[in-house]
Amino acid sequence: MKSCFNLLRLIFCLFPVLAWSATTSNETAKPVKFAVLGDVHLGLRGEDKGFKMTASSERLIEITIDQLNAMNDLSFVVFAGDLVVNGESFNLSRFKEIADRLRAPYFVILGNHDQPMIPSDAAWADGKRTFYPGETKAGVATLFRGHGFGADGRTWWSADIAGLHIVGLDTVQIKNWGGMVPFQELDWLGKDLDSARSKPTIVFMHHNLIESHPEYKLWPEFLVENRDDVKAQLSSFPQVQAAISAHYHFSDFHVESGIQYFTTPSINTYPCRFAVFEITPKTLGMRTHLVGESGKNRTEARSIRAKAKEEIFKAEDWMGSVARELENHGKPYDQKSVEAAVRTLFETNSSVPDSPLRTAAP
Fold first, then answer.
1. Which of 36, 283, 290, 350 has the most CB atoms lying inside 10 A of its own CB?
2. pTM
3. 67: buried, middle or exposed (CB in 10 Å: 19+, 13-18, 0-12)?
4. Torsion region of 137: left, alpha or beta (phi above 0 gives left; psi -120 to 50 gives alpha)
5. What is the mean pLDDT of residues 92-103?
6. What percent of the chain has pLDDT over 70?
């Protein structure tokens, strides 16, 4: 009796992957490719300075859209939050104009910069309230209705596409740049995953569930606060294959309880990359592409990327932030050590080899 039960349990756990390859042969016998762009930070006003290439941000996304449109086998695109500088309506409108040029369907999730920043005391003082208020999260979801968001008013969503079930979570908090999945959303997530057990599932969010580059222990406050609860929810559904996030501007990869956790890079920060994923009935892998590495805009893009490299290494606030994090964790924080850390963060993990899909509950 016990052996029969174990056999049934194994069949149940294998079902999502087996069903995918067996019942959707025309659509998914071939690899499914999709792109993820994190931290675009489009700004129609600003400088190419330090960590972000704001003055060049419009051209960076335009060049990237041209590259994506040249990929004839791309099934969909996900913008993984931080679409604009700080939730400005004019930047969001321009972002949508450019994103609408995509030939492939695209989906949007919210990032911490897709809402207005709380002004400083100085900016809030009488006679000095010159800050731009920006859009609310609900306003952004309304603007991008049909790109994941529906008419139900939620700022999180799910969809079925290319034989996959994809989920876009809202991890944004109002008062800080850390992440949180509130109880109502977590409850919805469980019900949504329970209704999609037959389809391999990928979950997208802006903030991270797994610490990226744990050897440096950088900015732990950027992680999802209740990440243990979210990971427990994901791991309890064997069809969940991956969780893909952004926020840090660099790429990384970890596996925990059979789920693949990816951090995707920013097109707005050196070395200006985006990620393309390929999933088959058996494996999932990621490769990053430099903005403008191919196509008619190569010379222009190369110049912007060179400027981004120059800026990130001379940005005193950014380099100082890395130095403080290294010092706080007892690591060398001299100039050479900081530069080495930055190179490790931004120049590594340009690709992740194909890894087996999860086929059984942990």
1. 36
2. 0.88
3. buried
4. alpha
5. 97
6. 87
